[in-house]
Every structure is written in structure tokens, then in C-alpha cells.
Design goal:
Oligomer: single chain
Mean pLDDT: 86
Helix content: 40-55%
Structural class: alpha+beta
Shape: globular
Number of helices: 13
CATH class of the largest domain: Alpha Beta
Length: 285
């Protein structure tokens, strides 16, 4: 671990970012350039003291998980992320782990979306990051581990994963989930994580096995969705998708035309979400 190089790199990257680059309000005029240390710490879900010690060349060696959080918070490119890991005394992430590194370009768009649900997914249906509106609509998806991180795995193994969709849409959604995984499987190969998902699901779900054998392939998401919310009921939304150049990640944005019932429910969802997150912060404090 090169403490000096790590500290200087973190400081330089922090100073190069502006609050609006990460979805934070600019606020009053700042005495120093870039983000504050406490802002980076909050984005990386770590204590300000821990992050400060890293910048002061006296912190402990960060774990790989902590470095991944820092790479995301500082909006690092793939090359910058690898440099961060190497400077901290770790090998650069393996291809599977690197694929979970959120594309900075998508993050910059997500950071600017405050009034509508938006989330970034991997090509395996793993939620890499979601904004507060998406959490309020779909629940917090950050706690899943292993194969359950993939939405397609949960869809076929956990009945509760279907609660956000009307029962009449389940068959169509099942086909879409399998077709998306088939596209990823074709791109990544049988020995990839996509192949691991396929093998696990063929053994766990007869429905998946039957759909998999149809060989339907599609990366495209539905343009229109009806989603169920426990308090607001059915919400009709349009779905726009922005892919990275290699199509390994996608930003999903859920919107409703102004003046529609869906638009009104999104406004209510924003209020409910603020209340729910505020209560959570009070509880955790």
C-alpha cells in the first residue's frame, strides 16, 4: 500500500468534483475547490474520520469493498478504479467484479434525476445503484448478495419478487427476464456469471427451463409498465433506457406524462419517500 500516492490521488479526485457532479446542491460559496471530505465519505457510506485519515496518509488499508465504494463516490473511470486498487495494495478487480463498477457517464445522468425513479442495472439484472424515488417505488435493492443480486434469479426463485407487477403481466415479464439473460449469456459465454445463473435457474425453476429452451433473445426493455405500490396501488409509467457503449449496463428511467394519474402518483411517491427516508434517518441517528 502506497499511502502517500493513495492520499494524493483521493485528494486530487475529490477536488476535481463539483457538488452538481454527484447530485448534491451547490449551496453557499465554498472556500476550497471540489467536494468536502464529509461529502465523499457520505457518498461512499463510510465515516468522515475514516476517509480523512486516508487523505492524511495514516489510515488502515481499505478493504476491496471500501475501495469499490470510493471508486463509485469519486466517479472514477475503469482505469482510475484499477489504479486506486493497486495503490491501496490490492489487485485490480477481476472482470466479474469490474463489471459491477458503475459507468461514470450513467451516474452523472442518474445524479440529476431527483423527481422520478431511476436505477442502473448490470446486464445480469443486478441493481448497481438506485435513486431515492426508485427505492420508494421498488424498495431498497442494495442488500441482496450472491445470485440473488440478479433480478432474474429472484424473479424465478422468490415469489415476493413479483409483487411489483400485476399478475396479468407475470408471463410477459418472465419472458423478458429470460430473453435479457439469454442476450447476456450469448455475449459472456457459458463459463461466465451469466452461465452460473442459467445453470442455477434451470435446476430451480421449471418455468425458467421451459422459457430458456425457447431461445428468445432481447436486450430491449418494455416501453410501458404498470407497477404496483403497496400504498398508491397501480402506477402506469413509461420506461426509457440508456445503455453504456458496450451495453453491459443500463440506466432505467421511469416517467409519466404530465397531468396523468401516473404523474400524480409519482408526486405522491416523492412525498411518501421523503417521509420514509426521514423516519429511517431519525431511527438510525
Amino acid at each position: 500500500m502506497d499511502r502517500a500516492a493513495l492520499a494524493d490521488f483521493l485528494r486530487r479526485r475529490r477536488e476535481a468534483l463539483q457538488p452538481e457532479d454527484v447530485g448534491l446542491p451547490s449551496g453557499a460559496r465554498r472556500r476550497a475547490p471540489g467536494l468536502r471530505r464529509e461529502e465523499v465519505a457520505s457518498l461512499a457510506v463510510m465515516s468522515t474520520d475514516y476517509y480523512t485519515r486516508l487523505e492524511q496518509r495514516r489510515g488502515p488499508q481499505p478493504s476491496r469493498q471500501m475501495l469499490a465504494s470510493l471508486a463509485r463516490a469519486l466517479r472514477l473511470t475503469g482505469d482510475e478504479r484499477d489504479y486506486l486498487f493497486l495503490t491501496a495494495g490490492h489487485d485490480a478487480p477481476a472482470p466479474v467484479a469490474a463489471a459491477a463498477h458503475v459507468a461514470p457517464a450513467l451516474l452523472r445522468v442518474l445524479d440529476r434525476l431527483e423527481d422520478t425513479p431511476a436505477l442502473i442495472l448490470s446486464n445480469l439484472g443486478e441493481t448497481l445503484v438506485q435513486n431515492r424515488m426508485a427505492q420508494a417505488l421498488l424498495g431498497d435493492r442494495s442488500g441482496y448478495t450472491g445470485l440473488a443480486r440478479s433480478e432474474v434469479y429472484r424473479w424465478f426463485t422468490d415469489p415476493s419478487a413479483r409483487r411489483h407487477y400485476p399478475e396479468g403481466d407475470h408471463e410477459r415479464q418472465s419472458r423478458a427476464q429470460v430473453a435479457n439473460l439469454r442476450a447476456a449469456y450469448g455475449a459472456l459465454g457459458a463459463r461466465s456469471r451469466a452461465g452460473e445463473l442459467v445453470r442455477a435457474l434451470r435446476g430451480a425453476s421449471a418455468e425458467f427451463a421451459e422459457l430458456w429452451d425457447r431461445h428468445e433473445v432481447a436486450k430491449r426493455f418494455e416501453d410501458h409498465k404498470t407497477l404496483l405500490h403497496p400504498e398508491l396501488g397501480a402506477i402506469e409509467l413509461d420506461c426509457q433506457v440508456l445503455f453504456t457503449e458496450d451495453q453491459s449496463q443500463a440506466l432505467l428511467v421511469l416517467t409519466a406524462a404530465r397531468g396523468t394519474e401516473g404523474d400524480e402518483k409519482l408526486r405522491l411517491l416523492a412525498v411518501l419517500g421523503q417521509q420514509r427516508f426521514g423516519d429511517a434517518e431519525l431511527t438510525s441517528g
